[in-house]
Amino acid sequence: MSAIQTVNVGRLPFERFESLMDPERYAAFRAAVDRSRELLDGRIVWNVNSTARGGGVAEMLVSLLAYANGAGVNARWEVISGTDPFFGLTKRIHNNLHSAAGDGGDLGEAERRIYEEALAPNIAEFVEMVRPQDVVIVHDPQPAGLIEPLKERGVAVIWRCHVGIDVPSELSRRAWSFLRPYVEPADAYVFSRRQFVWEGLDDDKIELIAPVIDAFAAKNQELSPETVSAILACTGLEGDSPDGDPVFLREDGSPERVVRRATIWEGSELNAGDPVVLQISRWDRLKDPIGVIQGFVDGVLPQTDAHLVYAGPDVTAVADDPEGKEVLEEAVTLFQNLPAQARERLHLVAVPMDDVEENAAIINALQRRADVVVQKSIAEGFGLTVAEGMWKARPVVASRIGGIQDQIEDGVSGVLLDDPTDLGAYGEAVSGLLLDPERARAMGEAAQARVRNEFLAVRSLMQYLDLIEKITS
Length: 473
Ligand code: UDP
Known about the structure:
This protein has 473 residues and is of the alpha/beta class. Helices cover 43% and strands 15% of the residues. The protein folds into two domains: 5-212 and 457-472, Rossmann fold (3-Layer(aba) Sandwich), CATH 3.40.50; 262-454, Glycogen Phosphorylase B (Rossmann fold), CATH 3.40.50.2000. The chain has 16 helices and 16 strands. The strands form three sheets. It has a seven-stranded mixed β-sheet. A seven-stranded mixed β-sheet has the order 10-13-12-11-14-15-16, sandwiched between helices. β11, α8 and β12 (307-313) form a beta-alpha-beta unit. α3 packs across α6 (170-183), α7 packs across α11 (356-369) and α8 (289-299) packs across α14 (423-434). The model has no long low-confidence stretch (mean pLDDT 95). Uridine-5'-diphosphate is lined by residues 56, 219, 280, 282, 312-313, 351, 359-360, 363, 382-385, 388.
């Protein structure tokens, strides 16, 4: 079997962005498309990472590469293979980059051998596939060892680091030291934000490109209020909806129906007119489900008639996510120990994961149903759920950490919480918005405009084009 596996990349029409952009910006984008055809004629833009499925990076690649292809660029996606010790090691590196010890192991000479030996067959295959006129974008630490051999072949190489923390630690510096020799030969290093840039890299090669969302994907596409109600009725969260069908469009454009129920812990069903406060997150302590629920019960419930919906993926059936299960159980235990009048206003939802696009459509409906979206995380890289809520013109209350600060302008396109552990401030911010619908509406509109200008695929595609132009000229 080959070491390198090709992922089929779709083709999406970039013209759809015309409906979302003002004419001037769209004209600039069209001009960039023309420039890209000229610049990239006869070249392949290769993307290399270590997984075709799961996680935000893969999700973003699916749509960005499909739009690039739709614009006439030959954008390809290859996935490297590795051994168990290699993936154990790269998981440790990933944890260290986030200041976590992971399995507590070393990053020394023995680990270099594991890393380089596992990458050797990938390198041997891949350097035969590329031509010197091509461009390769290497994503994250796993394939970083490919950079030097590609440079020796005369290829332009971009290293894209998707992870980072605001304040470096001994552990993150240790991971940088391990990776730096592999990364250094690249022509450019792309980070999501300034604070994530490693020490010791050539500043002239640094580019900042923030993540984006796909406005047309099942997660973010427009849904009518009737469709939202129908989808939520189908999941069991709201009562039957006579007017709409629970439908959405798949990535390939084909219509589909939401068919699965969610697992829900609640005092009673959500009614059509009930105001909703929503947090969507994996079941992870760093998303602070306990604080979100307790802060709502103490600070929002007495002031308003709102309900809290806390939704995450269905982990009950997933054996290999013990932490997710544990965190969900903690949330359910808290729920069960609350008085009945609090439980009446709480809905913990485990959203089925059998079909990722169906899951995305349910998340989309929940976000569109919400009056206020919350992301009260303790730690966050970017926080895609924030951009997703903003795109749906929801006022978002979120922690002033990581990339959330780049998305929300405090008081204008959302509310930033200075101290994510201050439950009183969180409760006040949420209640304040629920009690002032005019301010909430204006904030939601500003939020949507901000995402339209800053966090849609168009911005990222144009930044990559500029960067490729710079390193190939
Ligand atoms: N998400 C989802 N289904 C769920 C829960 C979350 O699709 O049941 C999505 C969510 O909409 C977002 C992503 O998972 O697109 C989470 O990304 P984010 O950056 O917010 O946090 P992370 O999970 O990467 O820490």
